[in-house]
Amino acid sequence: YANYYANGSLYPYDSSSYPTNTFHPLYATGSQPYTSPVGSFSPNPYGLYDLGGNAFGWCWDWYDGVYYYSSPVSDPRGPSGPGDYRVARGGSWTSDALECRTAYRHPLSSTNTYSFVGFSTVLPDVP
Predict the structure, then answer these.
(1) Residue 102 confidence (pLDDT)
(2) Closest Cα partner for 77 from 66, 62, 90?
(3) How far is the C-alpha of 62 from the C-alpha of 77, rounded, in Å?
(4) Is the distance from CB of 33 to CB of 40 less than 8 angstroms?
(5) Measured between alpha carbons, how far is 23 from 121 in angstroms, rounded to an integer?
(6) How much is the pTM?
């Protein structure tokens, strides 16, 4: 479950509990849908919250639509940059279920700002 645009008629894995062809009803109460507070939905099996939907996550990678056709099989480092677009993953409240998959790579201009993009910090597990 996540904050995204439900369209179950297109994707059988779209398991939203709200009506299809609509934004999440709890976060579409004004003139435009918006992000949900962190922790609004159950965590994934790893205990992480909000990795799908809500806000795209900026990635370090530059976007190249054909990079993975010739990349190393193990631990690809991404295309060399700079380019015009960075990779965003995880989908947002504007996305359908397809874009909310972690495998989906969305190109976004690195010079624009967006209301549906954010980033996550990762802290090392230090004893």
Answers:
(1) 81
(2) 62
(3) 10
(4) no
(5) 27
(6) 0.79
Three-state SS at 58: strand
Question: Which pLDDT score is estimated for 27?
Answer: 92
Q: What is the identity of the amino acid at 48? A: L
Residue 47 and residue 70: Cα distance in Å, rounded? 34
Query: Mean pLDDT of successive 10-residue segments in the chain (127 residues)?
Result: 84 79 89 89 84 87 89 86 87 91 88 86 65
Tokens at 84, concatenated:
């015009």
Give, in order, the Cα–Cα distances in Å from 90 to each of 6, 82, 86, 125.
Answer: 15, 22, 14, 23
CB 106 within 8 A of CB 87: yes
Kind and range of the H or E element at 70?
A: helix 67-70
* Structure tokens given for 91: 């989908």
Q: Which residues contact 43 (CB under 8 A, 6 or more apart)?
A: 49
Angle at 35 between CA 52 and CA 1, to 5 degrees: 35
pLDDT number for residue 60? 82
- Structure tokens of 30? 């004004």
